[in-house]
Amino acid sequence: MTRRRPTRHASADDLLTELGRLTAQALERAELQQARVELAEALQRELLPAALPQLPGLRSAARYAPARHGLNIGGDWYDGFQLPDGSLAFSLGDVQGHDVEAAAFMGQVRVGLRAVAATAADPGEVLSRANELLLSLDTRLFATCSFLRYDPQTRELAHARAGHVPPIWASEEGGWGFCEDDGGLPLGVLPGEKYPVTRRRLTGSGAFVLVTDGVIEGPKFPIEAGLEQVARVVRAGSGADPAELAAAVLTVADLTGHTDDAAVLVLRHDE
């Protein structure tokens, strides 16, 4: 006959002790995660520009949302700065990966584009030189990117793409479209890559909007549907303040169910 071991029933004190231990562990994990999030957000703020350049007739604004997993550190960026000849340069892009390495590489890409743009005004040449520079770093990462140069004298907007999603434009008169011009491969992939340049003269009033794929792609939407949704927002708000339009475009990321980080850059042209 097999003897059964007596069952030990936990006392109220035992249950309270265990509950206290589990609560303390949960609080410790929550505090650690919060510290990680705050560190990630502080790092991201330092890597993105505090302000974008403005000129009479052209205003700009940008918005960024962190990734929804890991350390919330991503590789998306936006940038804007004045060139030595008085024109403005803007870039927006996405580095492969979602970790500290991707964030650090993003910083290198931003600095590299600024350095190259100081001596190469043509956006295609800027991307070509930046591509060679990134390849020389011997890293496994690559970046998609759009680079623009705006000439305030001629109102010409020159644009080149390196594997990036097309910009969206809209006018207050009702016109709109995707700038699906030819582009090149992402930066850091292939030596000697060339990047065609598209030139447009901005007239009238309207908006020119760039986004990263974190805005338009997610579990709920394929990339094409996300682009269409952004186009509807841009068309509806083409005459809005650039900051308001950038914030409205960023809400599309919530509709797609994205977990990636996301960035939006808006150029608003006023006659």
Summarize the entry for a quick read.
This protein is an alpha+beta fold and 271 residues long. The protein is built from seven helices and ten strands. It has one domain: PPM-type phosphatase domain (Phosphatase 2c, domain 1, 4-Layer Sandwich).
Q: Name the shape in a single word.
A: globular
Major sheet strand order: 1-10-9-6-7
| CATH-defined architecture | 4-Layer Sandwich
List the total number of helices.
7
**Global mean pLDDT:** 83
- As for the CATH topology, it is Phosphatase 2c, domain 1
Regions with little confidence, pLDDT below 50 for 5+ residues: none
Number of domains: 1
Name of the CATH first level: Alpha Beta
Cα distance spanning the termini: 97 Å
Helix content: 25-40%
* CATH homologous superfamily annotation: PPM-type phosphatase domain
SSE order, as H and E? HEEEHHEEEEEEHHHHE
Radius of gyration: 24 Å
Q: What's the total count of β strands?
A: 10
Please provide a written account of the structure.
The radius of gyration is 24 Å and the shape is globular. A hairpin with a 4-residue loop joins strand 6 and strand 7 (176-178). 42% of the residues are buried. The N and C termini lie far apart (97 Å). Helix 2 (100-117) crosses helix 3. The longest helix has 36 residues, at 12-47. It has helices at residues 12-47, 100-117, 123-136, 213-216, 223-236, 242-250, 252-256, and strands at residues 58-65, 76-82, 88-95, 143-151, 156-162, 168-171, 176-178, 198-201, 206-211, 262-269. It has one domain: PPM-type phosphatase domain (Phosphatase 2c, domain 1). The model has no long low-confidence stretch (mean pLDDT 83). The chain is an alpha+beta fold and 271 residues long.
